[in-house]
Amino acid sequence: MRRVLLIVLCLVVVGTAKCHAQQKNAVKITFLSWITGSTKLSYERAFPAVKQSGEFCTSLISAGYDKYKNDPMGFTLRYSHKFFVAGYDKSKPLMGFYLRPELIYSHYNYTHSKTGLRTPVRMGALLGTFGYQYCYKHFIADAWFGAGYAAGKTAETRYYHGFKTWNFFGRHIDNLALSFSIRLGVVW
């Protein structure tokens, strides 16, 4: 918990240290990511001339509470490219509704519940997401949901610290990836 508070404090200090007329950069933490077994940090940069932005996110799997109690350890990498489609304001180039293709790669090991052995997971996904990003002074909030295609070596929980494959109504579809989240951070 101390690490999370230190990270949030650093984000606030970095975000308020600089003030530009056009806020093109953001650093965000995925809200409550630490209660899903990982801590996710992202950096986003606006390309205001074309109403787009690029975002890179990384997560440390094991930095958080693991609800499945299978001791996962590894990392997740994501890149997304946002196309702002509505509510865009030139003075706040990171604000508005967006469509976003996203590429995710998750690489970790966990303790299998039946065998007790450390089991590797290497899973990737290509998602299409829809979301809204809001900026107020130096604060930024980002919320989205999406779906897409997943492939790789699956985990018994079907949760990959960045997306989940379909595991509802007694049916498993390991190639249908789902993602939704909220990120909070600072913008400058």
Task: Write up this protein.
It contains 1 helix and 9 strands, in the order αβββββββββ. It is mainly beta and 188 residues long. Strands 1-2-3-4-5-6-7-9 form an 8-stranded antiparallel β-barrel. The longest helix has 16 residues, at 2-17. The radius of gyration is 17 Å and the shape is elongated. The two termini are 26 Å apart. Residues 15-20 have low confidence and may be disordered.
Report the strand count: 9
Low-confidence stretches: 15-20
Terminal residue distance: 26 Å
The class by helix and strand makeup works out as mainly beta
Total helical segments: 1
Apparent shape: elongated
Q: Give the averaged pLDDT, no decimals.
A: 90
What is the strand and helix layout of this fold?
Blueprint: H1 2-17, E1 25-30, E2 38-47, E3 52-61, E4 73-86, E5 96-111, E6 118-136, E7 139-153, E8 164-168, E9 171-187
List keywords for this structure.
9 strands, 188 residues
